[in-house]
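Exercise 3.2. Students should predict the tertiary structure of the chain below and write it as structure tokens, then compare their answer with the key that follows.

Predict this chain's 3D structure.
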Amino acid sequence: MDTRKTVISVITAWLSIATFFAETSESYSYYVCTSNGEIVKWPDKKINWRAGKNSFSSSDWRDHLLKANSRWNQAPGDFTFGVDTWSDSSVSRGNSQNEIWFSSNQNILDGAPATCYRWAKCSGTVKWREKDIIFDSERKWSRSNNMYSKTIYGGDWRNWGATALHEMGHALGITHTNNTFNIMGSDQTHVMVNNGKIRFYAGEDGGNGEVFLYGQTDTSPRNDLGVTHWKYGEASGEYSSHWFCRMYYITGENVGSIPWLTDRRRYKVKLGGTYKAQFTFENNGYYDKSDIDVAWYISTNSNITTNDNRIRTGTMTLNRNKAYTTEHTVTIPSGGYEVGDELYLGVIVDYTGKITEFSSFNNATYLPILIVD
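Answer key:
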């Protein structure tokens, strides 16, 4: 365990808290009391939100809060988010209630799209006393799963669900992380994409932190594998930057590309050419898995399915201890396509469907390609 401490500001009259960073393969971080070094946790392993009456008055907003709750509830740790009431008309900080609402008060938000305020007790029984999440009501929030409306794919809207998961991660007791692909480092680019749709999720590292704090869940099924075309890029202060995955020549150089959706790229490949395709694979469930069937495809559209042209198969082992960004060799078919075709190089993890998972939406993704001379 790394013994370095980073004191963070906490709005409370009772204490300030420090963050310990876990080493080895785990990269999540969590809070401990500066006075005695004890980990701060929720003893009952749950938060039931009191949702602001004006903020969550519509059924659509309520559905999306329930969806965000469920994404953490599907993670492998034994922690549960729920809702106590949808009609809290007196939301405020420091009232010993766990509340969630929207506000335009920049004195609270300090320019952030959302924030999580936390109060804890460090004498006697060490525990959290209150967590509040406040969203900026003046931001352009998107509740749809349409990837093209999101800022990271050239749109104008911020993904509310991903931001909610990030703040809920703070609420259960984990902090920012800047050395791996994870929801607590960069929530907007911590998504999985297929068929023009995104899925936000807690992820391997967030789930690891939840298990560390609260132990293993008893829910079933406990398995969930996933693959995304995003990867860890570099540290950005206490956050992480996530980059778009790439294609490489066998010799390791970057494959040439052309713009595709804002600064994302469509990679230029030749018929019959052999390349290395990069994707990030995750085990978001509880159990380590080996002999996972994986297949790569060429598709004429962005909906990657087992009906597409399969060009390679293989097996992988995915453990619940890291986001695994790696390259696999693929050969573009020499026939069936023409120069100028805009295609998609897809991958499906567990393409045979032999593993029972709580979600299969996140099992497929792609990199855009262009056939050139």
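Discussion points: Confidence is low (pLDDT under 50) at residues 1-25. The longest strand covers residues 289-299.
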